């Protein structure tokens, strides 16, 4: 894994927000529902393991597996979409809330 400067990291976050703006609403909602379902299953699994074993630390160690599965399957929680898309709007990226897709300066 390579190191990113904070300015490069911020640029990548804004780029991710711009890509989410261009994603179809239907696709974003389906991906969010699938992500929520997988995370709910991971939470139930973690709680079940904690209760059955009597060691809550085991459940706490297993819960992040759900986030790993989300990342590997390419799903996004809707909260991530809500965080990243305003970054693209604040950076005045094309396509962000009513701006033309031709780019800035084509107004």
User: What is the distance, rounded to the nearest whole angstrom, between the alpha carbons of the first and last residues?
Assistant: 40 Å
Give the amount of beta strand, in percent. under 5%
Our count of helices gives 5
Class from helix and strand fractions: mainly alpha
| Largest sheet composition | none
Mean pLDDT equals 84
**Spans where pLDDT lies below 50 across 5 or more residues:** 99-107
The percent of residues in helical segments reads over 70%
Large-scale geometry: elongated
Question: How many beta-strand elements?
Answer: 0
Order of helical and strand elements? HHHHH
| Rg estimate, integer Å | 18 Å
Could you explain the architecture of this structure?
The chain has helices at 6-22, 25-53, 56-62, 64-73, 78-90. It has 107 residues and is mostly helical. α1 (6-22) crosses α5 (78-90), α2 (25-53) packs antiparallel against α3 and α2 runs antiparallel to α4.
Top keywords for this entry?
single chain; 107 residues; mainly alpha; 5 helices; 71% helix; elongated; disordered C terminus
Summarize the structure.
The protein is an all-alpha fold.
Task: Map the helices and strands.
Layout: H1 6-22, H2 25-53, H3 56-62, H4 64-73, H5 78-90
Helix pairs in contact: 1-5, 2-3, 2-4
